[in-house]
């Protein structure tokens, strides 16, 4: 199989970073893994302060499509998801529900897990930060940071947003006036209230990592690149970071090893989940490190693109190869969020639209490079126009027993002369199918799912137009040899388009692609990227199938 060009580009990037690590090896950074070894792809672990919403499902579906794509290329992938369960917000949420934090976490974590099952997410690891294996990882990691001299005890003073679990500088807070005229300080980015915090706790020497973080950013690890300048602005001004709380204020968390009066900062605790899933520390599978891609929303960019790599540098571990940062789904102009409560229920939408239908919409119209408003009307429109009317309709037309009487997929060998029945333009379009896999590979490797889907749909529209123009249902009624050859030609060209697009659509609409390929008679073993070359053998069709019901807008 010819490897797509982007694959090589990626390896080049990893290699250049490898050299970079050797230069900074004074802190004992472990070397990067060899080429061709397994990938670790992660999503954030989600905070269990309330039930999941469409935003969470979007992150996970985006990462799932990336994992499915890598697996389709033959890459071994470890895909991790999970829930973040410590912190003051959880402590408070449990209190308000009159339950214990653990029972509260069990209940909400199960909601996320159910969602991922129903969403057909192919994760390998579902990590919970209340698990013993994670407790061990966090305590070991802390001890390493401390032994290497990156943690010291000191007086922390500054603004803190409990809702965001984040420390903020003076520039990152502002005054707002509430309805009753009270002036309150809030975080500029989230609008959440902040309080002035002053206490003795443990502090991480974040300021020591300016150089290493800058070099890491030079390797173009932040995608899309539009977010890189923001990260650089944070890196330019790096104060040390408080990484513990007094236990009397925050008891729901992992204690600092050797000091039971302090609890480890929830973000340090949470970020270490990515190591826990790779077996750290006792069963650490080094082959999976560093993560090939960490998918996040832009709200948590600072934690993943500044704190996280700095923690890893301090521990002598490699930082992630890529941070894939997407934008937000909005509702009436505001970020959909648990705290705000302006959420769209993903379970209900999976029920209405199916996992493939919803995933198709989210990746096609996705809030990837810019924020996007979620709209049910748009979901219905997209599914009906692209999946039902275009793909489903084309499949029905070329496999209908009244048109395709022998129920088979004619091969190119059966057809004497394409140009006898097709225009020059159509012949060229047909031959361009041979390059489609390479073109889609480049886009999928770059996580540009929306552009890839646009491209695939262009071929489907073209094939539908061809079928419409050549009316195979009329040709099927004639028994003369010329009409039959003409019919075969049209059926072959349309089915080839469906077959190749079906193979390439597997990462995005796995269930519908399977239905489509099965109906076309394509066996499970013939659905790899290498099979996107032209089909030269006739195939018997599978049994009849309805790809997807039309969705009613009134639902
Ligand atoms: N509106 C959104 N659009 C896209 N992704 C989102 C959205 N909201 C949350 N996410 C995903 O969830 C991650 C944040 O998880 P979190 O549990 O903090 O959700 P949240 O709804 O922002 O919660 P909270 O309101 O309590 O801060 C984001 O980084 C992103 O991956």
UniProtKB/TrEMBL annotation:
<dbReference type="GO" id="GO:0004825">
    <property type="term" value="F:methionine-tRNA ligase activity"/>
</dbReference>
<keyword id="KW-0648">Protein biosynthesis</keyword>
<dbReference type="GO" id="GO:0005524">
    <property type="term" value="F:ATP binding"/>
</dbReference>
<dbReference type="InterPro" id="IPR015413">
    <property type="entry name" value="Methionyl/Leucyl_tRNA_Synth"/>
</dbReference>
<dbReference type="GO" id="GO:0005739">
    <property type="term" value="C:mitochondrion"/>
</dbReference>
<comment type="similarity">
    <text>Belongs to the class-I aminoacyl-tRNA synthetase family.</text>
</comment>
<dbReference type="Pfam" id="PF09334">
    <property type="entry name" value="tRNA-synt_1g"/>
</dbReference>
<dbReference type="InterPro" id="IPR009080">
    <property type="entry name" value="tRNAsynth_Ia_anticodon-bd"/>
</dbReference>
<protein>
    <recommendedName>
        <fullName>Methionine--tRNA ligase, mitochondrial</fullName>
        <ecNumber>6.1.1.10</ecNumber>
    </recommendedName>
</protein>
<dbReference type="GO" id="GO:0006431">
    <property type="term" value="P:methionyl-tRNA aminoacylation"/>
</dbReference>
<keyword id="KW-0067">ATP-binding</keyword>
<keyword id="KW-0436">Ligase</keyword>
<dbReference type="InterPro" id="IPR033911">
    <property type="entry name" value="MetRS_core"/>
</dbReference>
<dbReference type="InterPro" id="IPR014758">
    <property type="entry name" value="Met-tRNA_synth"/>
</dbReference>
<dbReference type="InterPro" id="IPR023457">
    <property type="entry name" value="Met-tRNA_synth_2"/>
</dbReference>
<dbReference type="InterPro" id="IPR014729">
    <property type="entry name" value="Rossmann-like_a/b/a_fold"/>
</dbReference>
<feature type="domain" description="Methionyl/Leucyl tRNA synthetase">
    <location>
        <begin position="39"/>
        <end position="398"/>
    </location>
</feature>
<keyword id="KW-0030">Aminoacyl-tRNA synthetase</keyword>
<dbReference type="InterPro" id="IPR041872">
    <property type="entry name" value="Anticodon_Met"/>
</dbReference>
<keyword id="KW-0547">Nucleotide-binding</keyword>
């Amino acid at each position: 199989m010819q490897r797509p060009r982007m694959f090589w580009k990626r390896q080049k990037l990893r290699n250049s970073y490898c050299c970079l690590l050797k230069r900074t090896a004074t802190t004992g950074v472990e070397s990067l893994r060899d080429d061709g070894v397994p990938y670790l792809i992660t999503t954030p672990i989600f905070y269990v302060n309330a039930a999941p919403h469409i935003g969470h499902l979007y992150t996970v579906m985006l990462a799932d499509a990336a994992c499915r794509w890598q697996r389709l290329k033959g890459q071994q992938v470890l895909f991790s998801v999970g829930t973040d369960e410590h912190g003051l917000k959880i402590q408070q949420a449990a209190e308000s529900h009159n339950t214990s934090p653990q029972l509260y976490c069990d209940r909400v974590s199960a909601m996320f897990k159910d969602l991922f099952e129903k969403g057909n997410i192919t994760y390998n690891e579902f990590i919970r930060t209340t698990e013993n294996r994670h407790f061990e990882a966090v305590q070991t990691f802390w001890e390493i940071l401390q032994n290497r001299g990156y943690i010291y005890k000191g007086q922390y003073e500054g603004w803190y947003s409990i809702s965001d679990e984040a420390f903020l500088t003076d520039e990152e807070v502002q005054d707002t006036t509430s309805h009753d005229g009270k002036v309150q300080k809030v975080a500029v980015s989230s609008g959440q209230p902040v309080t002035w915090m002053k206490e003795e706790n443990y502090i991480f020497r974040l300021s020591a990592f300016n150089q290493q973080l800058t070099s890491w950013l030079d390797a173009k690890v932040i995608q899309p690149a539009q977010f890189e300048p923001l990260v650089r602005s944070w890196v330019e001004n790096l104060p040390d970071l408080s990484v513990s709380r007094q236990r009397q204020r925050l008891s729901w968390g992992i204690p600092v090893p050797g000091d039971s009066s302090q609890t480890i900062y929830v973000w340090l605790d949470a970020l270490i989940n990515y190591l826990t899933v790779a077996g750290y520390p006792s069963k650490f599978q080094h082959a999976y490190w560093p993560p090939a891609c960490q998918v996040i929303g832009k709200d948590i960019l600072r934690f993943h693109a500044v704190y996280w790599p700095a923690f890893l540098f301090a521990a002598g571990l490699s930082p992630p190869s890529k941070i894939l940062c997407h934008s937000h789904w909005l509702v009436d102009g505001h970020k959909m969020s648990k705290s705000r409560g302006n959420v769209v229920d993903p379970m209900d939408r999976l029920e209405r639209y199916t996992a493939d239908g919803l995933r198709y919409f989210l990746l096609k119209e996705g809030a990837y490079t810019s924020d996007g408003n979620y709209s049910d009307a748009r979901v219905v429109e997209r599914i009906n126009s692209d999946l039902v009317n275009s793909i489903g309709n084309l499949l029905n037309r070329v496999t209908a027993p009244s048109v395709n009487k022998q129920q088979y997929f004619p091969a190119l060998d059966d057809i004497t002369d394409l140009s006898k029945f097709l225009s020059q333009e159509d012949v060229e379009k047909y031959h361009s199918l041979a390059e489609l896999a390479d073109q889609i590979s480049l886009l999928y490797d770059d996580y540009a799912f929306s552009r890839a889907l646009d491209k695939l749909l262009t071929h489907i529209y073209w094939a539908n137009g061809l079928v419409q123009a050549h009316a195979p249902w009329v040709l099927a009624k004639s028994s003369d040899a010329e009409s039959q050859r003409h019919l075969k030609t049209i059926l072959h060209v349309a089915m080839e388009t469906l077959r190749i697009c079906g193979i390439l659509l597997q990462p995005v609409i796995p269930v519908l692609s399977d239905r489509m390929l099965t109906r076309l008679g394509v066996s499970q073993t013939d659905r790899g990227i290498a099979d996107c070359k032209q089909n030269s053998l006739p195939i018997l069709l599978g049994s009849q199938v309805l790809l997807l019901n039309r969705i009613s807008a009134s639902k």
